[in-house]
Amino acid sequence: MFFSELEDTQKRVEFTLREELSGFNQVIAEPMLYACKGGKCFRAFLVLQSARLHGVSSKEAIRVATAVEAIHAYSLVHDDLPCMDDDKLRRGHPTVHVKWNEATAVLTGDALQALAFEVLASKNTSNDPEICLSLIRELSIAIGATGMILGQMLDIEAEKANEPLDYESVVGLQMKKTGALIECSAKVGPIMAKEDSTSMSKYARLLGLAYQITDDILDVEGEFERVGKKLNKDFKAGKATFVNLLGLEGAKLRASVLIEEAIDTISSYPNGTEGLKAAAQFVISRDL
User: Does the global pTM surpass 0.90?
Assistant: First the structure.
């Protein structure tokens, strides 16, 4: 059930994205679509499940889900640039700067970020301006100078540090770099329903940390054909990954504990949490 719903989410996000880009010049629309292609759409799935749990229209939620995936794609395009991680492959295909050039990759990322906020500001997303503003504010905070961007900056600084980061520092870094957008995705339902987001926020923070720990595990023992990008890069470089800090088995155990806690966090909801629980289990069982 989970994988069929995830696949359905992927198709709906791609359809919505193509609709949004239908009037764009192909010189920029083509690399934008390319950058979004092949993703798991895990964050979009969280948006839709959160919306369903809080009685929010799927028609409106899919637009928010698409905006979130546009942001995620933008971050990956910029992460892959030679001045950042200098990766040649993403999702098993040449990165945007390899397929086109660095300038196109920078502009593609910029365009995807702008598109996300254009979608959130639309009346098609919500007729309530207050909800649109709340979504825009939440996403801005998640990806800005106190969220994802700060996490990326801390990661860059860590590479130049004389001593590797300790566990708590890595947790803080990754909660921003990876976790902030995941948390924002899971909070969409209560935001659009104008309800309390405390439980969803806690669930997502635990989920986001487990997600990053699993990423570090896959960097060590994943298969290239499944993961679709260069492996063992961080581990070999001696970066303060969760595997380096906790050991492979210790990292797996920590991720499992976090997922159990995440599932417990949403147990207060009477029903409708099956998808979110399945998403949590997917985080630690995935091989891509």
Answer: yes
